């Protein structure tokens, strides 16, 4: 199939960079993700350039600009223009890969075609020049139209060279909402264990980006076998059956459904935490599975075991500490009851704060959304909804901190209580009564109460 020759809008600075390289006698193209994104109608995050100029020659051509040279041995010179960084890389081919991750050597090559052949997927292996048009030697445009991730060349060879590509395949499938070509998916699954050669930080970043993609749920459900190469605890979740009273999915399909159901209205920070929590929330179920006398599966203790497992997994992936702690705290209670009475809701607000409770509600909601549509499940959903509504109202109007109390330390002293620990104790006593609803948060009433307290302590 011949595809139409597209035209792409390049930023004027990028055109200027290409022109300058050409004026110096070299060829140059924009390449990779920026070409893919432009053809998809998405604004590229950055513009990478490839060129026939050697790194030294590129340095010469842009000698009047600040340059970052950390990528020189891979052929990359980063040029800083107008506060932005443009990576300019010499056409190259990668030598043999010794460790499933890093090419032993890098060879510079003559034409752009040779450079495109080293790239991971057909949709990432296109170059463009305003006059020369699109260079697409591997059917990238066709795969874009078919929404398909396919390796350039033999997938087994390409994944054996660099195991990170296994994860990039699933990450791009989620980020772009693409499928993975059968041969590419099969090779990724059979080489999944080589992902253990990738640095934990890179694995974390790829999964983090996968989870943030619009098709995360579908991709997790479809490619769990591949991802088990990155997180081995996934494997026993696949096919781990659950009681039909609540569930219609095995643990892994349920997990994928729960990630998919994370509500879209959360802040970016909360969304990231809740997505990770959903990925990990039931991972201890295979470890906790018992079958009761009724023949149904039960998972006693899977909350707590799940939090321990989440901690272990996130530590091994070198996840940011704050994210790890938040995720584990949510996994530990994801299945617990929620109170419906104000005094208890206020105490939860005092202990955890509104943001954490909102995340907990989002976790519970996503979890329940991936259950069977049974009345008992719907009743729980309504419970979460009621709790959350009331919790937000009380966060705005209720009193659950000493700062919210209409009297302070000065009033306690004025009432005649001695300076020292008694001051704090008196305020805490008032706060407890206010949260219980036995005392209104009204200044005059609180002052009266303080007088009584002072009389008692005297
Ligand atoms: P995004 O920046 O959205 O992740 P991208 O396609 O720009 O997407 P980068 O990681 O920035 O991805 O890499 C730029 C280009 O370099 C890719 O489009 C691809 O052509 C090539 N590339 C990156 N990583 C690899 C790899 N591990 N193996 C082969 N080619 C790669
Ligand atoms: Mg990029």
Task: Map the helices and strands.
Blueprint: H1 12-23, E1 28-31, H2 33-40, E2 48-51, H3 55-61, E3 66-68, E4 76-81, E5 84-90, E6 92-94, E7 106-108, H4 112-117, E8 127-129, E9 133-135, H5 140-146, E10 148-149, H6 155-161, H7 164-176, E11 179-180, H8 182-190, H9 200-212, H10 216-227, H11 251-260, H12 268-280, H13 285-288, E12 290-291, E13 297-298, H14 302-316, H15 321-333, H16 342-369, H17 375-397, H18 409-414, H19 421-436, H20 443-457
Parallel strand pairs: 2-5, 10-11
Antiparallel strand pairs: 1-2, 1-8, 3-4, 4-5, 6-7, 8-9, 12-13
The protein binds adenosine-5'-triphosphate and magnesium ion.
- Biggest sheet, spatial arrangement of strands: 3-4-5-2-1-8-9
The major beta sheet can be summarized as: 7 strands, mixed
Q: What is the CA-CA span between the terminal residues?
A: 94 Å
Compute the average pLDDT. 95
Could you say which small molecules are bound to this protein? adenosine-5'-triphosphate, magnesium ion
Query: Roughly how much helix do the residues carry, as a percent range?
Result: 40-55%
Q: How many runs of DSSP E, i.e. beta strands?
A: 13
Rg over CA atoms, rounded to whole Å, is 29 Å
Strand content: 5-15%
Low-confidence stretches: none
Discrete helix count: 20
Structural class: alpha+beta
Shape: elongated
């Amino acid at each position: 199939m011949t595809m139409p020759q597209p035209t792409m809008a390049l930023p004027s600075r990028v055109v200027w960079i290409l022109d300058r390289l050409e004026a110096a006698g070299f060829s140059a193209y924009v390449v990779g993700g920026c070409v893919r994104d432009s053809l998809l109608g998405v604004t590229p995050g950055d513009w990478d350039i490839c060129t026939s100029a050697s790194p030294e020659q590129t340095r010469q051509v842009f000698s009047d600009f600040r340059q970052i040279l950390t990528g020189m041995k891979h052929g990359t010179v980063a040029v800083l223009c107008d506060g932005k960084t443009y990576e300019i890389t010499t056409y190259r081919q990668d030598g043999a890969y010794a460790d499933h991750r890093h090419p032993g050597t890098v060879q510079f090559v003559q034409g752009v075609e040779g450079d495109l052949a080293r790239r991971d997927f057909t949709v990432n292996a296109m170059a463009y020049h305003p006059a020369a048009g699109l260079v697409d030697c591997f059917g990238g445009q066709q795969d874009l139209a078919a929404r398909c991730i396919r390796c350039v060349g033999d997938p087994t060879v390409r994944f054996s060279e660099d195991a990170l590509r296994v994860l990039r395949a699933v990450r791009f499938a989620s980020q772009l909402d693409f499928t993975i070509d059968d041969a590419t998916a099969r090779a990724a699954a059979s080489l999944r264990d080589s992902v253990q050669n990738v640095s934990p930080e890179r694995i974390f970043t790829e999964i983090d980006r996968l989870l943030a993609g619009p098709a995360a749920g579908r991709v997790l459900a479809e490619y769990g076998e591949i991802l088990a190469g990155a997180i081995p605890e996934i494997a026993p979740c696949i096919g781990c059956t659950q009681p039909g009273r609540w569930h219609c999915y095995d643990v892994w399909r349920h997990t994928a459904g729960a990630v998919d159901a994370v509500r879209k209205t959360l802040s970016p920070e909360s969304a990231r935490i809740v997505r990770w929590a959903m990925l990990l929330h039931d991972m201890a179920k295979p470890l906790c599975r018992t079958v009761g006398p009724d023949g149904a599966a039960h998972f006693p203790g899977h909350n707590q075991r799940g939090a321990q497992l989440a901690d272990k997994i996130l530590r091994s992936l070198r996840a940011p500490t704050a994210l790890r702690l938040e995720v584990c705290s949510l996994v530990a209670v994801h299945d617990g009851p929620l109170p419906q009475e104000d005094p208890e809701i206020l105490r939860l607000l005092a202990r955890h704060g509104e943001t954490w409770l909102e995340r907990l509600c989002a976790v519970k909601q996503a979890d329940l959304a991936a259950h069977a549509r049974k009345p008992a499940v719907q009743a729980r959903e309504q419970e979460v909804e009621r709790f959350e509504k009331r919790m937000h109202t009380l966060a705005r109007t209720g009193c659950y901190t000493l700062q919210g109390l209409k009297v302070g330390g000065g009033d306690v002293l004025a009432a005649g209580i001695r300076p020292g620990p008694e001051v704090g104790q008196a305020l805490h006593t008032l706060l407890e009564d206010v949260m219980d609803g036995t005392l209104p948060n009204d200044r005059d009433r609180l002052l009266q109460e303080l007088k009584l307290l002072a009389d008692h302590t005297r």
